[in-house]
Amino acid sequence: MFENGGPRCHTVKGMNLRQLRYVVATADHGTMTSAAQALYVAQPALSRAVRELERELGIELFARSGRGVVLTAAGEQVVRQARIALEAVDAIEAVTRGQGRGSELRIAATPTLEPELTARLLPRFARDQPAVKVRVVRCDGREAVGAAVRSGQADLAVTDLPVPGDLAAHPFDQREVVLISPPALKLRDPVSPAAMEGLRLIVPTRGTARRAELDAMLGAIGANVVVAVESDERSAWPGWVRAGRGSLLWYRNQVEDTEGLVVRSLMPPVTRTIGLVHAHRPLPQVAREFLAYAKEHGS
């Protein structure tokens, strides 16, 4: 940093790239929890780094807005410059990778399937490959995931299959969609689309990728439901189901705490094949290693 300029230069001296990445991710995702998940870091560590940067700069970067955060006027200027700085760093890192130095894996995912990476596959892979830097590229929907690997923004992507033929697909697991309801709801197991007529559901917010996926699935199985709650606060959904506010259609494996809930299969069964996809071009060695790892440990 510049040495002249008095105390202000002194204050900014401690700023580092990690803090800039955390601030940009928080701006992109709207909550520190989502930003931490996307960067594969602990949420308290991200929050602490952002607060430290605010202290070093002497300004407030974010203001609370509902359950999330929004940029302040000063924060918008900082994030704008941080993006420029990080793009330059990424370009430099790309040069070093071309010289055979460094090892980075970039994986794209939708919000729905991001837990497949951050909660299951990446922690195991990171333990076995501690030198690999993993970056999760969060995409708003399947089309954006495909665009990320086609453009080279990501090496691989985790997504529902099938995908267009210009992408190579590697299935590694299958997920069952189930109905999660409060105990007071009396339904047979498995549940038919006809039995779901008028069922009150907790659903993602309209206009989001998750909501589009759910609406498409409901249309495919012919279930006419009633929207009881619209929210993207996924961690709150099980509690709302227990409170009787509605039922939930979700992947069986992504509901960790089923106490006080009733989980039923659908009839006919609704399953999704999950796979890793990439463009038809040579993959970096680390991406090939992760492909092999996912196929072995995905189930």
TrEMBL record:
CDD domains: PBP2_LTTR_substrate. PANTHER family: LYSR FAMILY TRANSCRIPTIONAL REGULATOR (PTHR30346:SF9), TRANSCRIPTIONAL DUAL REGULATOR HCAR-RELATED (PTHR30346). Belongs to the LysR transcriptional regulatory family. Keywords: DNA-binding, Transcription, Transcription regulation. Coiled coil: none annotated. This is DNA-binding transcriptional LysR family regulator. GO terms for molecular function: DNA binding; DNA-binding transcription factor activity.
